[in-house]
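Quick one, T. Sequence first:
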Amino acid sequence: MSTGKVIIDGREMPIDGAKNILELVRRAGIELPTFCYHSELSVYGACRLCLVEVERMGLVASCSTPPADGMVIHTNTERTRRLRRMVIELLLANHDRECTTCEKSGRCKLQELAHKFGVKKVRFGNRDQKLPLDESSPSIVKDPNKCILCGDCVRMCKEVQGIGVWDFAHRGSKTVVTTAFDKPVSEVACVNCGQCVAVCPTGALTVKSEIDKVWAYLHDPSKVVVVQVAPAVRVAIGEEFGVKTHDMATGKMVTALRKLGFDKVFDTLFTADLTTIEESLEFLDRLQNGGKLPLFTSCCPGWIKYAEQFHADLLDNLSSCRSPQQMFGSLVKKHYAKSIGRAPQDVICVSIMPCTAKKFEAKRPEFMTGGVYDVDVVLTTVELARMIKEAGIVFEELEPGAFDNPLGMGSGAALIFGTTGGVMESVVRFVAGHLGGKEVGRVDFQQVRGVEGIKEAELEVAGQTLRLAVVHGLANTEKLLSRIKNGEVTYHAVEVMCCPGGCVGGGGQPDVNDMISRVRRMKEIYDLDRVEQVHKAQDNVFVAKVLEEWFGGPANHNTHHALHTHYTPRRRISGQVIDVVKTDGQEPLHVSVCVGTGCYLKGAYDVLNKFTELQRQLNLTKQVKLSGTFCLEHCDEGVSVKVGDEIITGVTPDNAEQIFKTRVALQVEP
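Structure tokens:
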């Protein structure tokens, strides 16, 4: 641990373990500007906005320079101010400056710093060309013209989510952040979690807005428009309006939704309780009858897509339960519409979610009734706030309202779905009450709470010890899955949440979406749970009534049809074969290297480069047709290569030369 003292702008500060000068400067109450620095990611040190002057050292980047005893640091000199302005000018010169129509306007860090430092003129011209937007994803929009190369999205996707959809390509002034081979986002292994959006300081990555679609439905008199609100939304929506009391924000939000024109305002807590009941009974059935274990939760669509892409062998371990969002949509289209005498297509179901992946989930073909999607539109927390502002509703002055019944009542167990560990605790509450009877009182399962990436817990149930695990963030998930597959650990049930902190940290939540904000939202969820009169899912009388009237009880053929689903491998990603070196003359030997995200992360790019180099060195450009393809469907076995009709797995940059010489070169005549 670093010790000693430094002088910052004349003030003595103890180092006290600080990793870099920036940390000390902020402890001293000085807010240095940064773009590429993020406290939860590795240090990149590229933007140079955080420059300070250190006596006898000169200018240094404070984010990447460790403090040393006796340093004398100046943060606000004529030189540092001049250089910061110049950095901002250079960023603006290569930035699409159509700020008034930008999705991020008013919340853009570049815009904020340009104003803060008085940058009123840009001396370096404009971008040479305008690149097209990528709107192929159902969840996010990429605008390369607004990227400032801070690398936050690259590090977030690699380090926190362990996927690596984004990376830097090319060099010098041509450097861009893009996907592998510049493929559209919809054609790579993006799980739609939106964490890249959450850290992007400009409008380069934004949530794909569906606000206009919702307005069109609300203004259509032939439609009945109902809305459901997820638990994590209620502890974040107030941040957009300066309302700090979460219980007040919930009531005001309900009133605002009615003012916007929604016919019914329902609560996703209702189907969170329904999910708890169905998933718990599924778990007990597997436990007692030798079913596939561990049982993995299925509420998080980012995790589901990740499993389909990278861990297809575990799909039978996933709970067959739909997520609360999709259970709600199914209830609305299959039963609620019928109860009010309307056709499924005439009842529009809108979801308000903290999650961008929910937009993708709603468009899965499994979730349809009578040819229409069960959930028609998904809005994020931020999108809802924009609609309220657009309608001129003064949120802070609204009187609180209550959710509509029958689909507006939820328990405390449903509330905690919004945070990591919440689904597992909800199941524990159900199981404890189900097996222990009414004498079992309040159940607060503290072992699965908190922000630790991987949490383990044990629970005694009916004389059996259950081993449980909770994980959030997909990089952590990959570590846990590796330990499970290697036989290092065994569990009966595992909760997985894609986003750090769970749904409270979803990609559609308000800025700033850091761990401090997530922890605050977690606390508010547990505060709401503490005062909730209904503690367990099975105590929700409205859910019990709907289960009986609409399905004839829980966990039967009827609920399985409407509330459960199945998942299939999603290894193959659409995309054309990329010819690396063209051939002519005789029919060549076709050699394809998989460059899909799974193989790309294992070194496919280096393997392809090595093959290309060897092809030329051995004078095989006519005999071997080398190409890149986007999936050979062996994602969990290392880089895959197809030579003729044979698929070779486990190729690495280290053994690529041997593979090429023994499995390719020997098959053709030089």
